[in-house]
Automatic annotation (TrEMBL):
Organism from which the protein derives: Pandoraea aquatica
GO molecular function, one term: NAD(P)H dehydrogenase (quinone) activity
InterPro entries recorded: FAD/NAD-bd_sf, FAD/NAD-binding_dom, NADH-Q_oxidoreductase
Family: Belongs to the NADH dehydrogenase family.
The protein's name in its UniProt record: Pyridine nucleotide-disulfide oxidoreductase
UniProt-listed PANTHER family: 64 KDA MITOCHONDRIAL NADH DEHYDROGENASE (EUROFUNG) (PTHR42913:SF3), APOPTOSIS-INDUCING FACTOR 1 (PTHR42913)
Gene Ontology biological process terms, A to Z: aerobic electron transport chain
């Protein structure tokens, strides 16, 4: 394989960073290829942890990965930027201008050449262009957004304490993000009661809105029912079969005109890939902006362009698999990154990439420290079964530990775990400022 081969990976989420790490170790260190990771944010955080950042129960110092230092340690390079265009004829991606904190232009438009391009830009909540949602709602799709919500949460909690007013938080979206955030907020305020404001839970008014007939619609009905019961026991008002049509600073408006008042509004309904992918470079995308890929994870229009994770629309085929696109989950992203990491180097040498086959391990849902549920997948001894309680919580925690092991190796991941536990002993369990 020629040293000139340039592999560019856009997006440093679960799939993108895992792939860059693997290719950097196998190809970059050997000089067989130049691997470049492009992302607009300087650090990586496991996306299923974003709700803990938003609620203030996560110390990101022990959880985030700095792209620059990780790249230096693992044989690839990191370039800061946000993709805005794709020139397939010249095999270049276009990065938009970057501004500094003072609003002045920091970097002009740049072009990054590639021989193989991997799109791994992840996903974001879909506001369906509803009036007011983008203007007044918080989103929990990235670390900066989660941190911004946490800052707003502190301000509203202070206002509530000083004025002895209610603190009304409304979350639109009863999927995994909305439900996980709801449970984590309950835990945050339960712990906050021990830091000088014992009446805070009494002033807290929490509402979760779901358009469908039940929360966690992707899970079995009994998991949905148990989850709703748990949330209601924690003090959440759960509204199902409730359609939001717009939002303003007073709250969400239902299709019947009724106002659901709120001081902090969160939009966690629906999922789509970033808008910059819509029809980019003439590639086929679906209504959710996802790039349609073949069984090899390559696009139909250009074999040099791959897509994986949440921003890819992959239709599996085979015995025992439903004919529908794979869901945007961490498990799918992890398996696709591992598959491409095993075969991309050989493909650059002229060999074919075998079809990707997804093994469904099931799905896990953690309700903070209160409970957890798991729907087992199509493989293993207990196909299609349900687990809950401590075992499900432990299994959910192991997903993150496996992610750490893949990025850092066993030894360093163990050290990071120890540092995380020690850090939890010396400081408060929630962010107080």
């Amino acid at each position: 394989m020629s040293r000139a081969n340039r592999i560019v990976i856009v997006g440093g989420g679960i799939a993108g960073l895992m792939l860059a790490t693997r290719l950097g170790r196998t190809l970059g260190r050997a000089g067989a290829a130049r691997v470049t990771l492009v992302d607009s944010h300087p650090t990586h955080l496991w996306k299923p942890m974003l709700h803990t950042v938003a609620a203030g129960t996560c110390d990101v110092a022990h959880s985030q990965v700095a792209y620059l230092s990780h790249a230096c340690s693992n044989g690839f390079t990191y370039q800061a930027g946000r993709m805005s265009g794709l020139d397939r004829e010249r095999r270049e991606i276009v990065l938009e201008e970057m501004e500094g904190h003072d609003g002045k232009r920091l970097l002009g438009e740049r072009r990054v050449p590639y021989d193989a391009l991997v799109l791994a830009l992840g996903s974001q909540a879909d506001d369906a262009s509803l009036p007011g949602v983008r203007d007044v709602c918080h989103f929990i799709d990235s670390q900066p957004q989660a941190a911004e919500f946490n800052a707003a949460l502190h301000c509203e909690a202070l206002r509530s304490a000083v004025n002895d007013d209610a603190l009304r938080i409304v979350i639109a979206g009863g999927g995994t993000t909305g439900v996980a955030l709801a449970a984590e907020l309950s835990r945050t305020f339960a712990m906050a009661a021990g830091y000088g404001d014992p009446q805070i839970c009494e002033r807290l008014k929490l509402t979760l809105i779901e358009r469908g007939p039940r929360v966690l619609g992707a899970f079995p009905p009994d998991v949905s029912a148990s989850t709703q019961d748990q949330l209601e026991q924690l003090g959440f008002r759960v509204l199902t079969d409730t359609r939001v049509v717009c939002a303003d600073r007073d709250g969400f408006y239902r299709d019947d005109g009724q106002l659901i008042p709120g001081d902090l509004l969160v939009w966690a309904a629906g999922v789509k890939a970033p808008d910059c992918l819509r029809g980019i470079g003439g590639l086929t995308t679906n209504a959710a902006n996802q790039v349609v890929v073949r069984a090899t994870l390559q696009t139909a229009q250009d074999e040099r362009i791959f897509a994986l994770g949440d921003c890819a629309s992959f239709m599996p085929s085979g015995v025992g698999q439903d004919e529908c696109a794979l869901p945007p989950t961490a498990q799918v992203a992890t398996q696709q990154a591992a598959h491409l990491g095993r075969h991309l180097g050989a493909w650059l040498e002229g060999r074919a990439i075998p079809p990707f086959a997804y093994r469904d391990p099931g799905a896990l849902m953690s309700l903070s420290g209160y409970n957890a549920f798991g729907a087992l997948g199509r493989f293993g001894f207990f196909k299609g079964g349900i687990v809950r309680g401590r075992f499900a919580q432990w299994s959910h925690a192991m997903l993150y530990r496996r992610h750490q092991h893949a990025l850092h190796g066993f030894a360093r991941a163990t050290v990071l775990l120890g540092a995380e536990k020690l850090g939890g002993l010396r400081g408060p369990r929630i962010r107080l400022a």
